[in-house]
Amino acid sequence: MTEPKRSNESPPAPTSGETLKIRIRGLMKSFGPKRVLDGVDLDIQKAESLVIIGGSGTGKSVLLKHIIGLLKPDAGTVEIDGVAMESLSNRELTEFRRRFGMSFQEGALFDSMTVGENVGFPLTRQTQMTAAERRDRVEECLELVRLSGVADKVPSQLSGGMRRRVGFARAIAVEPEILLFDEPTSALDPIATGKIEDLIDELRKKVTIIIVTHNMQQAARVSDRTAFMLAGDDRIGRLVEYGETRLLFTNPRDRRTEDYITGRFG
Amino acid sequence: MANVALPRPVENFLLELGRFTQLVGRLFAWTPRPPYDVRELFRQMVRVGLGSIPVVLLTALFTGGVMALQTFTVLRRFNAESYVGTLVALSMVRELAAVLSSLIVAGRSGSAMGAELGTMRVTEQIDALEVMATDPVHYLVVPRVWATVLTLPLLVVLADALGVAGGYLVSVPLMGANPISYLHASFQFMDLKDLFSGLIKAAVFGFLIAVIGCQQGFYTTGGAEGVGRSTTKAVVLASIAILISDFFLTRLLF
Questions:
Q1: From CA A73, how far away is CA A67, in angstroms rounded?
Q2: Mean pLDDT of chain A
Q3: How many angstroms away from the CA of A24 is the closest CA of chain B?
Q4: Residue A102, beta-bridge partner list
Q5: ipTM surpassing 0.95
């Protein structure tokens, strides 16, 4: 394979006065013959909100799954607080994940449990809360996503958008240090979307948040920084551009970013 | 990197074997670790055992009956009809109850495990477990495997009883054998070793069924179609594993 030209390469933006939370270097991943990530470098600071944006099939979710160690890279490293995820044993990784919360594209709710048990699951597994405390926290989280009163329903009784919001509530239940959201608001109505974005906006002051989305307005609203991924013949699985959201949207350096933003692509 | 191309079936076999070994390793590593979910273990035992009882009993009853019919016709040629009971009882207890019950459980529960875990895999529920600091092997595979290991021998005890009863029902009312001497013949040559060897086999088969079922579910890819494939493979591979391991267990135990 010929090495594609890397013009306009954006090095991880230097930051001062902040602490590095996540450091990604040279991340490579292929599934069979298909290369999905091809040397991704990314730095994410503590209490920073980063949006990973790009068209479908550009490896956004795959990148997210590497950050939480659900996938192991073929090459490269993901360090969280200086600990390389790929060096951890299975058991260490399970322990390490206590600092994470994640919501999945389709919600990924346990369909053998009620909604309340779903949201309470991380509380049961990761905290010493009593049943009453758990119940309160579950109700509180469901209320945050405007779903109070559904705790006794089972996931199959909910709409796709509602399931997504329950997944969001489950992710934030234990108040983790790092939150990963995979398309948190696709399939949500504008009001629910607004509510989730307000929540993210509230959370980003305290915790590190990484959001995968292809919604640019959302990226502009909830992120400090944006990483732009683009599928193309030559640059598949790479970051096209990475920097402060405001700058990237108002003054994109790469033409493909500009095309995406102005809607000429994707 | 050296790439040695192996024939496809060999490659697939090695892949499955590798996954099986890995899953068994993780199973044993996680089993002693808390929290112990006894409720889930019992729930799985009920799922594996209770639903299988009618089919297992029916199968054992008729197999015992057929065995009696067959052996009666053969043994009569040697004037050895009095040993029908012995043959039926020993065959059931040592061999048939365990193998037949296990094949039924493979079809019922092994497939269900493949489908359930497969669906959880393709809908990212297994990823969600991992994300919430819960090892999926600990949470899903450990209770399923030990529940099956504990339940299958119980089913086999029932199958043993019904198999002998099936033989009795054919021999005594139908063929006119003497009830006392038939029962005497059934248990005359049986010792506890015969019974236990059947139960040990059942436990091993239970282990294979559950591990293979969970393994197929665990490594499912490709959506609904993938779940279907996993379910089929769970049954087929478990059945093959039962039949092949039966040979080696029989060599080992007798």
A1: 10
A2: 83
A3: 19
A4: A180
A5: no
